[in-house]
Amino acid sequence: MDSLEIKTNDPELQLTAEEQKKVQELTAQIKLDQPNDIIQYGSQVQAKVSEFADKVLGEIKTKDAGYAGELLNNLLFRVKDLNLDSVGSEGGVLSKIPVIGGLFDAGKKFLAKFEDLQSQVEKIVDELHVARTNLTKDIALLQNLYEKNLEYFKEIQIYIAAGDQKVQEFRNKILPDMLAKAQAQGDTLASQKYQDMVQMVDRFEKKLHDLKLSRILSLQTGPQIRLIQNGNQVLVEKIQSSILNTIPLWKNQIVIALGLLRQRKALTAQQEVTKTTNELIQKNSEMLKSGTIEIAKESEKGIVEVETLKKVNQQLIETISETLKIQEEGRSKRKLAEQELIKLESDIKQKLLEAK
């Protein structure tokens, strides 16, 4: 880009030949003896810069690029939520079977969870497509905003350059000439005119200062737009990577995980069957051993054991002895009673004889 050196108070201004021509034309139009011209100088481009800054800020607020980031985080959360080690505790009829019940629940719940997650992920992927499209549109829109801001920046530079050139013209030539004439003439009106012009130039310089502040605002807006563009571009690339790489890779890993789960279920079921079979054989063997020994012992016993006969015989002897003893005692008591009765009869007889 060709540029010409402009003698201004701002060394950062670099203008092309075409822009230099515009500066010269604008400089010739500046009339510092017209207060309204000073007030209105550059006000239109200032208003454009201010309105444009508000528009950019509005775009930043309304374009929620964070939504795309939330979608990516939500996708990551959903994938992590699928726990391959999860095992359910409830289920249908098959879940009640001791050996395979837990395995059935684990596979059933995992598959149900996977199908639900797959549906949710597909929805997220659709939303990511929409977010990517919107972000791509936003990047193009921000590019237009950047170019428009660059136009405002160049336009305000022209106003600043023209204003600086006009100030230099007055400071270096017009004001000194007016001062010299006023001093030579000793005319009060000429002195007042000189002072009025000095004040006009001062106010014009303040106006240029305001323009330079607007120029800084426009200068800052450019990098802000680029930062937003770069952020959106990064999100677009991440979304693109997720759609083309992460999602297919995740699906492949899920297929592998399902295969491993089925494999683990089969292995665990076989291990449980083997364990149960061995336990059953061992228990039957123990029961066979115990039963056989008990039967053998019982078969060697008589119908009535000798000890039982001995005990019964002893009790029988004791019963007979007790019976005999009781009978002997009864006979003795009866004899005594007979003697007592004879005595009583004799006593009665004796009393009766005495009575006669």
From TrEMBL:
<protein>
    <submittedName>
        <fullName>Tellurite resistance protein</fullName>
    </submittedName>
</protein>
<dbReference type="Pfam" id="PF05816">
    <property type="entry name" value="TelA"/>
</dbReference>
<dbReference type="InterPro" id="IPR008863">
    <property type="entry name" value="Toxic_anion-R_TelA"/>
</dbReference>
<comment type="similarity">
    <text>Belongs to the TelA family.</text>
</comment>
